[in-house]
Amino acid sequence: MYRNFPSLVDEALAQATHTRLIFEQAISEGRAVISGERLIIEHLDPLIEALYQQIWQRVDPAALTAEQARLYIGELSVFARYNSTLLLRAADTVRGFCPELAQELTRNYLEEGGERGKLPAHYVVFSGALIADLGFRVNGWMPRAASTRSLVSMIDILAWSHCPSTILGMYYATEAVAIAETRLLQAITDRLGVVLGRGQGADLPRLHDYYRMHLDEEHEAATGKVAVEQGHQDGIARFIRQAQLFGFLQPQVIDGFLQMLTPFVDQWVELSTLIDAARDGKD
């Protein structure tokens, strides 16, 4: 069946000609064509930034109804539910090839999944905060959108990949979108709080602390004044920057990055398309 919503990743690459050519040259020639540092700074990160600027405009959190906000929150909670499980699986998959990357993924798993004696699992914190602050339960939420199912399916498959470079690329995409996704999710939960008359930001204390835990370099979960999500991204980026040292292949890193970035973006686009169609139907 054909898609009924646009591919923002393809559209962005059509506009970002230099990035598209770098990606295609590396893949077609089967070799690194640029340093890992430049790949991240000049291509991967700017592509993500441009995409999430568009996504924010499409979603327009300040205009959401309670029902629409709940749809976004519920669908986004599905990936969060399985994130730590898949991190552990990916760590086990790459351990024989690159124990250093396995160690980094395991560190992320312990932070996301809850390390004994430290903070609870992030999904546990988030789902509990939603109930406490917004009266909204996502536990047991079943995906409404095809893109949500595709997102979970893709990361489930990729975490088993026989190619460690593909896993590296897909986890860079996962960690690199996390800050933008968390900020947008915060805007949506704030909007739901406002619509429900419960306020926003610090008025929703448990959600406020959840977002600080991810984004605030002063939070107790931060390491060396680096916030959790930024630390995860930096930790994975190291292996792209030093790909030659660790034996990672740039074409497969790019491939894994695109395989994972696309479903993350698709989820937002499909949900916004469904909401826009429902609005038009009411008009």
User: How many domain regions?
Assistant: 1
Mean pLDDT: 92
Taken from the alpha-carbon principal axes, the silhouette is globular
Alpha carbon gyration radius: 19 Å
Q: What is the CATH topology?
A: Heme Oxygenase, Chain A
Q: How many beta strands in the DSSP annotation?
A: 0
Q: What is the makeup of the main sheet?
A: none
| Helical content class | over 70%
Strand portion: under 5%
For CATH, the homologous superfamily is named as Heme oxygenase-like
Protein name: DUF3865 domain-containing protein
Describe this structure in words.
The protein has 283 residues and is mainly α. It has one domain: Heme oxygenase-like (Heme Oxygenase, Chain A, Up-down Bundle). The chain has 13 helices and no strands. The mean pLDDT is 92.
Would you summarize the structure shown here?
The protein is mainly α. It has 13 helices and no strands.
Name the features.
about 280 residues; mainly alpha; Heme Oxygenase, Chain A; 13 helices; about 0% strand; globular; DUF3865_CADD-like
